[in-house]
């Protein structure tokens, strides 16, 4: 099973520097799956609470299994006349915490939709990491390594065995509880969708609780009275919200194996976790046969910026970096302000109306780089040079803009004029990294992607700024924004911020 976050129609994950040339455009709606452009759904406390309810019992059971296994190992060592050579009461709590952190990173919590083989592998890796940290901790705390090696080996074997057995029992018990697991939509215009629905309904230990089936009634010859049938593809969002569904399993139609965009796109704006079931099997087949087992083979698309924890992480990064940058750059900001004031008439700052989160307007602040009455001067210039009007209407930019002052041209080249937007970041109107802020007249150019664009805060920098900036077309810019929203991660933000430094220093694509 592959767990990656990709644009739906991408044939591969292109490096960020090459995204503008990759076929990543999504958002094209098929007539069979009508949807209205709207904001991407954001999930909040209900999702967090469901994640806690699903994860916490497994955390408790795992820690109990570890404590039991290590205690039994210690007792066996004493019975055989040996000594473990360590204080378990002091060492176990931090080691157990490390196990939980590693387990969460490996996806053991909440541990949804893992095959027995994959869950076994991840448990062994987590235990191995725990024992590696355990060994290093003993070496640091004690001058000599007096822990018996066979005690560690026995503990490792018992921990691995006990964890696997405890997990198996826990899943069976928890699966019988209605509050455990995640409500799930099963989507597909193929009879395999009904089979997957029935399998999930009879396999609650997987942790995906089927709400019902989304399908084109004519494709499955349904009359609408089936108890498991929810509606057609246009109703995905309403059923996801009403049913509090956070997962969707999409089964591609056999007639559309070459293009799965239409099969997946309706779910992406409504469900944070979309699992595209492998077209080779339809149902899980990890054992090499066709019988269902505990795992669904396919590609997992996770909409990170739908999730409250991910959004909180992004906000914390914004606050820490923006505050630090304002403090460090204060002398530079003062120097730029003086240069603006002493070289041209007008205010130091310029606030331009832009569209932000959920389509709300805000003032994006910059150091003023243009002369007074800039709009009037632009109209006069375009009237005198009609051959440049097409260039302006195409990208809302001119290679040589007569409105820009001498020092303003330098500031724009180095992107110094945008430093006041750090204040917008602190106010929560912008993010350090995100799509380029746009004006109302640009909405039409985003088309069906506008709802996706307004699902996040615009950024001071972003994928567009490090991928050619003004040397890219507007369509490529839209694709870059879409790619960013679909594939956001903290590491992507950090990478783009570092790339921005190089882009600014070499003034790549700036004018």
UniProtKB/TrEMBL annotation:
Transmembrane segments: 56-78, 90-111, 123-141, 147-166, 316-340
Principal localisation: membrane
Membrane-topology descriptor: Multi-pass membrane protein
GO molecular function: undecaprenyl-phosphate glucose phosphotransferase activity
Record-annotated Bacterial sugar transferase domain positions: 314-505
Keywords from the named record: Cell membrane, Membrane, Transferase, Transmembrane, Transmembrane helix
Region span, Disordered: 15-37
GO biological process: polysaccharide biosynthetic process
Family: Belongs to the bacterial sugar transferase family.
Name assigned to this protein: UDP-glucose:undecaprenyl-phosphate glucose-1-phosphate transferase
Source species of the chain: Posidoniimonas corsicana
Biological classification of the source: Bacteria, Pseudomonadati, Planctomycetota, Planctomycetia, Pirellulales
């Amino acid at each position: 099973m592959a767990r990656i976050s990709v644009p739906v129609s991408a044939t591969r994950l292109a490096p960020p520097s090459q995204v503008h040339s990759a076929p990543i455009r999504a958002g094209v709606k098929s007539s069979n799956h009508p949807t209205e452009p709207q904001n991407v759904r954001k999930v909040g406390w209900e999702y967090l609470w469901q994640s806690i309810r699903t994860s916490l019992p497994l955390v408790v059971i795992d820690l109990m299994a570890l404590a039991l296994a290590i205690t039994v190992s210690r007792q066996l060592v004493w019975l055989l006349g040996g000594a473990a050579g360590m204080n378990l009461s002091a060492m176990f709590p931090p080691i157990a915490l490390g196990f939980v952190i590693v387990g969460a990173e490996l996806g053991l919590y909440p541990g949804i939709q893992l095959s027995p083989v994959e869950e076994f592998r991840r448990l062994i890796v987590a235990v191995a990491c725990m024992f590696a940290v355990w060994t290093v901790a003993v070496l640091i705390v004690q001058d000599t390594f007096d822990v018996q090696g066979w005690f560690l080996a026995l503990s490792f074997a018992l921990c691995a065995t006990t964890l696997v057995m405890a997990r198996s029992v826990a899943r069976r018990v928890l699966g019988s509880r209605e509050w455990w697991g995640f409500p799930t939509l099963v989507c597909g215009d193929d009879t395999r969708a009904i089979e997957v629905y029935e399998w999930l309904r009879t396999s609650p230990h997987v942790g995906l609780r089927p709400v019902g089936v989304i399908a084109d009634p004519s494709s499955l010859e349904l009359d609408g009275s089936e108890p498991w049938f929810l509606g057609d593809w246009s109703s995905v969002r309403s059923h996801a919200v009403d049913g509090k569904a956070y997962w969707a399993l999409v089964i591609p139609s056999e007639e559309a194996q070459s293009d799965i965009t239409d099969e997946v796109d309706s779910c992406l704006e409504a469900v944070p976790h979309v699992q595209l079931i492998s077209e080779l099997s339809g149902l899980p087949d990890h054992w090499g046969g066709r019988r269902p087992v505990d795992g669904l083979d396919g590609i997992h698309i996770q909409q990170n910026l739908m999730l409250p924890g991910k959004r909180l992480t992004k906000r914390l990064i914004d606050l820490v970096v923006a505050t630090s940058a304002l403090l460090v750059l204060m002398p530079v900001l003062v120097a730029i302000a003086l240069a603006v004031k002493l070289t041209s008439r007008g205010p130091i700052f310029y606030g331009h109306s832009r569209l932000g989160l959920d389509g709300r307007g805000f003032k994006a602040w910059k150091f003023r780089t243009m002369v007074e009455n800039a709009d009037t001067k632009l109209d006069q210039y375009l009237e005198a040079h009609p051959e440049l009007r097409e260039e302006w209407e195409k990208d809302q930019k001119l290679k040589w803009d007569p409105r820009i002052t001498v020092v303003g041209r330098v500031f724009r080249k180095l992107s110094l004029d945008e430093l006041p937007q750090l204040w917008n970041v602190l106010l929560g109107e912008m993010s350090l990294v995100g799509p380029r802020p746009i004006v109302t007249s640009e909405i039409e150019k985003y088309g069906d992607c506008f709802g996706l664009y307004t699902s996040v805060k615009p950024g001071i920098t972003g994928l567009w700024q490090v991928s050619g900036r003004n040397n890219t077309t507007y369509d490529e810019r839209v694709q870059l924004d879409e790619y960013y929203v679909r594939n956001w991660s903290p590491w992507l933000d950090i990478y783009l911020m570092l790339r921005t430094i190089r882009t600014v220093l070499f003034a790549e694509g700036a004018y």
